[in-house]
Design brief:
Blueprint: E1 6-11, E2 14-20, E3 23-25, H1 29-36, H2 38-41, E4 58-63, E5 73-77, H3 78-81, H4 87-105, E6 116-118, E7 125-127, E8 133-134, E9 139-148, E10 151-156, E11 168-171, H5 178-190, E12 193-205, E13 210-221, E14 233-237, H6 251-263
Parallel strand pairs: 1-4, 9-13
Antiparallel strand pairs: 1-2, 2-3, 2-5, 6-7, 7-8, 9-10, 9-11, 10-14, 12-13
């Protein structure tokens, strides 16, 4: 990883990656200025500074949809980059992607239609006419590991990579608490009832703008009855027969790894 400040560049939804010696990383500002050129970057900088706890700050640029990558670089979508970057790099890139989209889609006020500008003090777009503030959207979602003694309930979406099963998840609806969402989503998706909810941890999830809030829950009653619109399969697994699991950086994987640690004698 470069010790210099990162430079995060998107062409549409594709992230610019530096390709060196068979690996990839986020480029730094000096590299991007040299290899893309100041003219190409002019007027594309997003007025938001991206920082992570243990990495450098990052300038962010949002280019048009059809920009070609210069030699030594590649544009990849964020889901591909998820498997290629370090945790801190991806955290910065994911945050930047959400802010690029926020800036791109909030140029005009949704209340009166006037032009928005970046607010000088708040991380918000401000209407030049009515003063309405427009903050970046964050969609809360719950993700839950359901356990029954030494078994864990995992489901599979048709959108997952082949063979992968994961913990159950769903978006919180207006007027709904996190706990109410857990009960509703699990009963809708797999037909079982749960209780004894325990908070686990949370994780930003930029696909496209979610905050995943993780819980552990105990099975109370019911047999698996999947909703085929939501998932294509769900099963009980033991630590001896776990399927292909989600990416190690995901909160889903953290929940499963924690279950394995607590279950194996």
């Amino acid at each position: 990883m470069s010790p210099d400040p990162w430079c995060i560049v998107f062409s549409g939804s594709r992230l610019l990656l530096r390709t060196l010696d068979g690996g990839v990383r986020l480029p730094n500002h000096e590299e991007v200025l040299s290899d893309l050129g100041a003219d190409r970057l002019a007027g594309t900088r997003v007025p938001a500074l991206i920082t992570v706890a243990s990495g450098p700050s990052a300038a962010t640029f949002g280019l048009g949809d059809d920009v070609d990558a210069p030699a030594g670089y590649a544009f990849e979508n964020l889901r591909v980059a998820y498997h290629l970057l370090t945790r801190d790099e991806f955290r910065a890139a994911g945050t930047a992607r959400q802010k690029v989209e926020w800036y791109r889609t909030n140029g005009f006020c949704s209340r009166c239609g006037s032009v928005n500008h970046k607010h000088p003090e708040h991380e918000a777009m401000s209407c030049t006419a009515c003063g309405q503030l427009h903050f970046a959207r964050v969609a809360p979602a719950v993700i839950v590991l359901v356990q029954r003694d030494r078994e864990v309930l995992l489901g599979r979406s048709r959108h997952f990579m082949e063979g992968v099963y994961s913990t159950l998840a769903g978006f919180v609806e207006p007027g709904e608490s996190l706990e109410e969402c857990i009960h509703r989503e699990i009963e809708e998706e797999v037909g079982v009832r749960v209780g004894n909810l325990r908070y686990f941890s949370s994780q930003p999830h930029p696909f496209p703008n979610s905050l995943m809030v993780g819980f552990i829950a105990d099975w109370i009653s019911g047999e698996i009855r999947i909703d085929p619109v939501e998932i294509e399969d769900a099963r009980w697994f033991t630590t001896d027969d776990l399927p292909v699991l989600p990416h190690p950086m995901s909160i889903a994987r953290s929940l499963i790894d924690d279950f394995v640690r607590r279950t194996i004698p």
